[in-house]
Amino acid sequence: MSYLLISVVCSVLVSVLLKLMQRRGIDIAQGITWNYLAASLLCFALLDPPLAALSRAGAPHVELALLALLLPGIFLALSASVRAAGIVRTDVAQRMSLVLSLLAAFLWFGERVDSLRIMGLVLGVAAIVMLVLRPRHGPANDADAGWTGWALPLLVLMGYASVDVLLKRLSAAGTPFAASLQVAFVAAFVVMLTVQMLRAWRGRIALTGAALASGLLLGTLNFANILFYVKAHRALPENPAVVFSMMNIGVVLLGTLVGTLGFGERLSRLNLLAIPLAILAIGLIAAGMR
User: For a tag site, which of 79, 134, 176, 184 has the least CB within 10 Å?
Assistant: First the structure.
């Protein structure tokens, strides 16, 4: 259970660090660039990815290229959502991406349809609607005004679901998980570094040590979240549903506590109702996995 706790904490700390970087005026795009450098190095050192598997004929290079482009885009959307909608709604939206992933599994990957997961999917959709809606007159953060307050969490939700679908396709093609991560991290770093060099060349930004340090810490937290989630599954191989549910519910609960108590985020009644619905949806989906 210690692996799960570390993974949950690291997941929420990613959002916290993005929030603090914004408050300190640190360039987020630079930080995300160095995040992928740290994640690449840690993946290579700790997971020993079998890269030779990617040189065989029929390797899913298109999916890997899409993953490499999608990862930094999602991170930028995550940062923008944390700024506009807050940590609570962003973290819940991120975890509710499993609803779209489950729908994709039913439609494209031939997973069995059962009543528990269907109920979880329906409640998850309801939770998503309640999460993104804001009343016209009610408590809300100033930054939450306008369409970004609901559009960005939805973008995060769809982005993470898309990553999950791509990873499932890579797994179905026989690509080792560690190798997929390694290539995606390196490619994402190259893409983002190219963008930062162009921005610097055009005089739009100056590369800073603060962005480098924040980005390396961000990458460490990002990779630790993945690493300890994998370790939790390996430690409890007979209980994948327990690991799945505790991870997602843990992030929802801790993200809510940190956002409301640590950063003073205010939620509408609809948003508050979305949280127990999201937890119930996760529990039903996990129960259907058994």
Answer: 176
